[in-house]
Known about the structure:
- The chain is mostly helical.
- It contains 20 helices and no strands.
- It is globular.
Amino acid sequence: MSENNPQQQKPQLSFWQIFNMCFGFLGIQFGFALQNANVSRIFQTLGASIDDIPILWIAAPLTGLIVQPIIGYLSDNTWGRWGRRRPFFVLGAVCTTLALFVMPHSPALWIAAGMLWIMDASINIAMEPFRAFVGDNLPNKQRTLGYAMQSFFIGIGAVIASALPYILSNYFDVSNTAPAGEIADSVRYAFYFGGAVLFLAVMWTVISTKEYSPEELAEFEKHTDESPIQTTGQRSATQYRNGSILWASIGSIFTATIWLCEWDKQLFILSIGILSFGPLQLYCATKLNQLKRHAETTEQLSTNREKQSLIFCVVDDLFNMPKAMHQLALVQFFSWFALFAMWIYTTAAVTDYHYGSQDVLSKAYNDGADWVGLLFAVYNGFAAIAAIFIPILAKKLGLKVTHCINLFCGGLGLISFKFISDPTLLWLPMIGIGIAWASILSVPYALLANTLPAKKMGVYMGIFNFFIVIPQLLAASVLGLIVRVLFDGQPIYALITGGALMMVAGIAVLRVNVDNSQ
């Protein structure tokens, strides 16, 4: 990135500059897609039952909940020779690559579950700064294009990654079966290749892209024509204390009820999460009272609260976030609940409903699992195509209407799995799912980015991830119970549930009130 006069507005970047800054997402999605398409298969191969799969997947959203705001905060406050975001790209790429090499050698289920935690934490270290990277480097008018470019690379990377086991098995005669308790060679080799691609793609972005300094970003923000950012207001020490009592009480009662009534143990994830938010708010109340005693003016208090510890700043920013984030929360909640249902249940649904097998050692099961990998490649391929047209459609219809249409396409696609008996035709609903996936990865960020202050772009993008993670935690907690109790253990109904919720998200986005709707 060339030097710019800091007194000007942020300049527009060329196509190839945007291409280079987003190219790393090709590698990140390579690892993410291998995880999504194959981890349930690995778990079942190592002895997990269908009921166990959601709780084993808890690693993915939980690590995102913890890691992303921390990395966002740290990258906001990092500046050195390699910039703000790029050091985290490198760290995440190295750790994820190593995790991809080790994961398919897991000798036991508990080791595979632990490796999923490590892999997902590493992916999040690299992924979170990429969202802020677009907000840092692009002017408002180009942010939709930037996030759509990320969606394009996500689609391309995921197409190849999701299809790799199928390609290796059917075109290179690599075995897709293995003795009991061992991972098939087709999966292992796919993970090796994915690790190499991830590292090289991320390093391309690191080497080919520069960053604006915090001082330059501050000057650019001063000279934008946008209206002041609207927030929900700073929280007082009393509000934090009252919130602490409320959340701790609800969490304690919920936890005790689960224990005494012997409810499904997966619900402890929710109850402990609610309970733990109480002490966090009590910590913030204590810190604010200390600051008030040492601050002579309101302005000094406001300045000092931004210089506190990581935990305080993340929680405080959560309560002081822009109103647009509140409005988009419901959209994200239903969208990502649906996606999580798809990721953890598609293999079980297709192998059971369409291939008639739950035996992980059978050829029918493994053929079905390979087909799911190819189906995931198909929806990501259509996502790459959709990403090209989303900015064009958004200019004509606006971002909200565009996102609503795309989410309805995805919802109908998921529901149609129940009504398509021939597995060779399951690529058809993947068209709609791919359109929705491209939109979910770009439009909410484009709606949000212009409402965020430049100096906190990273931490707010990390906090925005809460609205992605919380529905996944809920899905991991209750989906197994829902499928077992309401649907007699038939995983196909998890996909139908996800499809209905994705359409609810489409309706919810129309209620989002933002000025930058284009």
